[in-house]
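Quick question about two entries, pasted in order.
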Amino acid sequence: MRIASVFKTNVQGVVITTTLDTRKPYEAYPVAVRVTYDRKSWYYSTGVRLTIADYDKVVIAKSKGKYYDIQKQLQPIHQNICDKVESLKNANRFSFAELKQSIGDKKVGTDKSLSMLWTEFAESKKAIKTREQYLQARKSFFVANGAKEVPDGRKIYISGRILTMKAEELTASHIEKWYLHMKDQQNSVSTQGMYLRAFRAFLYDLKEKEIIESVPKLTIPKGERRTDSFLEVKNILKLRDYEGEGKIWADWWLIIYLCNGANLRDIAGLTWGADYENELTFIRSKTANRSPSVVHIPITDLLKPYLDKYAAPRQKGARVFPQILLDARTEKAIDNRVHDFNADIRVGLKPICESLNIPEVSASWARNSYITTLTWHGISDAFIDDMVGHTDGKVLSGYQGKISATKRAKINSMLFDDPEEDE
């Protein structure tokens, strides 16, 4: 894309331009002083970050206002680089290395805005979902403190002078405004907690880099107790026996439950393996990069009818449930498909749960229900950990023999047995 410049100066054959640095795609791009000499360029960050729309307004600003103020903020930075270049040229010592040295060795990031540092920290995360959480938290924070949401096609960007704020300018007042904003927006307790934990991790990173001196105290609300997010077997049986409208969503909840309560992301990636008549296996995506664990799903007589109804034909290497991901290939597309399918299950189950007079459930309840059912049947924690792919805190795992496929199938065959009627 062709980007106009805020300032452009030619100093003895060296072209110095203050412009947007568009070498990488961003929601809001960094404004940098680009020094070009002998067909090579070097960029110096100004610490200002702007969307293209806001940048264009800064370029043409002629009078008072926030865009003119940003222009005035950039002018001395541009002039300083020009002065350094001229001094080095006059001394016949100009090179990019000499220019960097003459500007001084600043600490990494100290010339960057809080917004820019936050974006860079988010984009350093490998998992798309994690990156999105950090970026959503950033957006919420800056909107709470005066940034405007600007629609651009299907995306919404933020703009405003607050985006130029430096990390050391962060105060308790900014955080307090954020608390109030999240409450006004009726963000759930879990969403508030997610945003604030992401913010805290980001601040600790700034402290480690000595960009800020201390991390302000944050009050992170506690989310709903997961111990309450399960269905008793008597209610699971009501879902199993339901025959009304939207039965497909009751069936999908039961599939997740009978598949060891696995996350939908893992179920979406299930393939028919070598032993596809007896078991399905997968490596849990949540722990794949830390301590990978193979999860075994017994194909019990309880699960078989659902596989016959919803699964693809058994063929080694083929996806078991291709209808979840469809043609999604990229990580982001896969995340979107899983998110949408989860939402479909939740929305589809709502009227069913109301009609059956049972708690309103989501796909995540299937995992808690699986664990609870086996626990109430007196199954050991070690066995349950193995079945759901828990790897943290398994002290005895190095000493235990591998659980047999026969034992796994026997235990999972109890999932429709009400433990309160055992006696």
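Here is the second entry:
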Amino acid sequence: MTENLKNITFLILVLVSFLYLWVTYRNARMYKEICNSYKSKTTSVPASACCFKYFNFNITYFYVPTEKIIYVYFPLIFKKTVSTNKSIPKEWYIFINSLPNSKKAWLYFEIFLLKMSGILMVLLVALWMQG
């Protein structure tokens, strides 16, 4: 039973990971459009908000996308008053939260897949440690 659960969890983790990579790649193109739209609407563009590589997949090292977390994930998840959002420009926070729901849905889906892969990884490690 435990061996089957390990295999199923691993298979789901692989599928979620590939789906996450595809969604992130898709969102990278959309993010370029978002940045161009923001640049056209405002004169004060936070350089770090639009000048990072959104999809940065490299098999040779593990990369934590801190800019993406700070400028995309945090404004969508937390309110402006939260300390993590106080470091970003107010205009950027308002802009990213005023995106059409169709664009925000893809960003939320990416966050959901990232959380799911983390949960599945912890579950897989817990199952592996049980024996």
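Reply: Residues 2-41 form the longest helix (40 residues). The radius of gyration is 17 Å. Hope that helps.
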